[in-house]
Amino acid sequence: MILPDGYSDISAGKIAAVVTHLEMTATPARRNDPPGAPSGPWTLRKVDTPALHWYRDLHRRVGEEWLWFSRARMNDPELAAIIHAPGVEVYALVVDGRDEGLLELDFREAGQCELVYFGVTAKLIGSGAARFMMNRALEIAWSRDLSRVSVHTCTFDHPSAVAFYQRSRFRSFRRQIEIADDPRLDGTLPRTAAMHVPIIE
């Protein structure tokens, strides 16, 4: 079968997404916090030397629905080598004494900061918590001597992710196709995760 121009086969057991890379190269104009912040229901706390079981639990609760799988596939030494590395900072968004959001910043490249992971649990989507956390993330990042802050998202993520980052003053500069083994087929994530992404067997 000859495929039309622009089409590519995806093998059984694989998933494919469009990845959008975004950046900002100067301190942005500050967005207003959502109503009730910063003295409202959310606080952001830095987690020094995160316990691996704690990180895995929060990463799963925030990212399972969006097929965050790369860290889930790492063994403990591999994961610790990243999240305990000098220049990597992990934060939790706290609501009513419970960690409900994950922010991971990577400052290891001089003059750069990457928002490696950014997200809140399902119950906080649409509440303003993500905007609160993004405002804090940008305050932390641009308090350093930087020339660039970057982030990437993909079509497995929340459908409003790109627009959210653009409202936060990021601009998209590159798009790529990512093809990977479906983490729901090897036990990395449950088969019920991310029902918006079809399983191809």
Structure in words:
The chain is an alpha+beta fold and 201 residues long. It has four helices and seven strands; from the N terminus they run ββααβββαβαβ. The protein has helices at 52-63, 76-83, 129-142, 161-167, and strands at 14-24, 42-46, 88-95, 98-106, 112-120, 148-154, 171-181. A seven-stranded mixed sheet has the order 2-3-4-5-6-1-7, with helices on both faces. A hairpin with a 2-residue loop joins strand 3 (88-95) and strand 4. The longest helix is centred in the C-terminal third of the chain and has 14 residues, at 129-142. The chain is globular. The relative contact order is 0.24. The mean pLDDT is 94.
List keywords for this structure.
201 residues, alpha+beta, 20% helix
Explain briefly what this protein structure is.
20% of the residues lie in helices and 30% in strands.
Helices and strands, with pairings:
Blueprint: E1 14-24, E2 42-46, H1 52-63, H2 76-83, E3 88-95, E4 98-106, E5 112-120, H3 129-142, E6 148-154, H4 161-167, E7 171-181
Parallel strand pairs: 5-6
Antiparallel strand pairs: 1-6, 1-7, 2-3, 3-4, 4-5
Percent range for β-strand residues: 25-35%
| Shape call | globular
Give the rounded overall mean pLDDT. 94
Largest sheet: spatial strand order:
2-3-4-5-6-1-7
Q: What does the largest sheet look like?
A: 7 strands, mixed
Q: What is the number of beta strands?
A: 7
- Distance between termini? 20 Å
Alpha-beta classification = alpha+beta
Q: Please count the helical segments.
A: 4
Q: Ranges with pLDDT <50 over ≥5 residues?
A: none
